[in-house]
Amino acid sequence: SVAVEIARHRVSAASVAPRESRLSVTAHAREVLAPGIVVPSLNAPNILDPKAVSAALHRVFEQMGSTPRRIALAIPDGVAQVSLLRFEKVPVRTRDLDELIHWQMRKAAPFHVEDAQLTYTPGLTAADGSTEFVVVMARRDIVREYEAVCEAAGAQAGVVDLATFNVINSVLASPDAPAEDWLLVHVTDED
């Protein structure tokens, strides 16, 4: 019920609860971070001052009135590589599909795939029967940096997501999600 975002210039959180069959924001808070404390990168350390980030997150929780035990964590988009893979035939067994995706990502990864957290979801199925997959890959040690500052503030990240994907997922989860073609633009004040 609590989401946290760690971004280049800020740490923010919001809690939600059901009200009248809809989710409503019940509390939110934000703390600004000094420049250079969080530097989103695909292949280099991201959190250069973990104590400062966990202290900022702790202050955010204080402003909200409590420290949640578990949170959903949104991290900067630049931490991960997002790829679209298309397969003419999709293996029936999940294990075979996992191996195929890992093998394909090995070609494009700027680091060892064995050091990555990798997830995928099926996308569109084309008229020719091929299926596209959205694949997200990040270095495990970098994701762990973000999880560790949350733990230092007293909360465990149960879900880790990219900031833009999180915005898209929140729109899609809404009962008012558009049924037709639509465009979502995520604008931030970050570089």
- Which descriptor suits the 3D outline? globular
Q: In angstroms, what is the radius of gyration?
A: 18 Å
Q: How would you sum up the major sheet?
A: 5 strands, mixed
Number of strands: 8
Provide the low-confidence segments as ranges: none
Report the mean per-residue pLDDT as an integer.
88
Total of helices: 4
What topology, given as strand order, has the largest sheet? 3-2-1-4-8
Helix content: 25-40%
- Please state roughly what percent of the residues sit in beta strands, choosing from under 5%, 5-15%, 15-25%, 25-35%, 35-45% or over 45%: 25-35%
Q: Give the ordered list of helices and strands.
A: EEEHEEHEEHEH
Structural class, judged by helices and strands? alpha/beta
- Alpha-carbon distance between the two ends: 29 Å
